[in-house]
Write a structure and sequence with these properties.
Length: about 200
């Protein structure tokens, strides 16, 4: 009898051609405000879109409040400040908002008067204060109420300088008034950035 062939099950791999770390190089001086993706380029793909309707995943208002970038089973994926700005808020997974947002922080970008809330990070948030585009501000994780159930970055865009009270949504209309599509905003500004992989 010949031995039974055991088929190897392939583990899911990230979309990228290379798993080597991506270095975002931001020139010291630039005529334009610099913007970079919040995740390394191979992971700069939406796994969940803004306001995607799903009443099972989002039972309260039926829609996704931000955008998700999936980790595709990978760990230790760095998260970058998407533009020059200021970390204006941060809290840990064991804080009241952390129960849903995990370790989280908010980056305020004055050039567009908008804020970006990074959620589900694997470690406590960075210190408050100014950061440059491309500065690492965290590591992708799965803390808090991570609806996708896997390591990913949930990124929410807010108009103005972020305060946590703004996160207390009361309706879908309230979400639409306070937030915007963070992925779309970043992509609109990327043409001013220089990325070296
Ligand atoms: Zn999400």
């Amino acid at each position: 009898m010949s031995p039974i062939a055991v088929k190897k099950i392939k583990k899911s791999t990230p979309p990228p051609a290379s798993s080597a770390p991506v270095v975002v190089v931001v020139p010291a001086s630039s005529p334009f405000p610099m913007w970079t993706p919040p995740v390394p380029l191979p992971y700069f793909i939406l796994s969940q879109t803004y306001l995607n309707e799903d009443w099972t995943l989002y039972p309260k208002f039926g829609h996704h409040t931000g955008v998700d970038y999936g980790g595709h089973g990978q760990t230790d994926i760095p998260l970058f400040s998407c533009a020059d700005g200021e970390i204006v808020y941060g809290n840990t997974a064991d804080s009241p908002w952390g129960a849903s947002l995990g370790n989280h922080c908010a980056l305020y970008v004055p050039s567009v008067d908008r804020s970006f809330l990074y959620c589900h990070m694997s470690a406590p948030p960075p210190a408050l204060g100014e950061v440059k585009a491309g500065t690492q501000i965290g590591i992708m994780g799965n803390t808090g109420k991570s609806a996708a159930g896997a390591i990913h970055l949930h990124l929410e865009g807010f108009f103005g300088r972020f305060v946590i009270a703004a996160r207390a949504f009361t309706s879908l209309a309230d979400i639409q008034t306070k937030t915007f599509d963070a992925d779309q905003c970043i992509r609109e500004h990327l043409s001013f950035g220089i990325l070296t992989v």
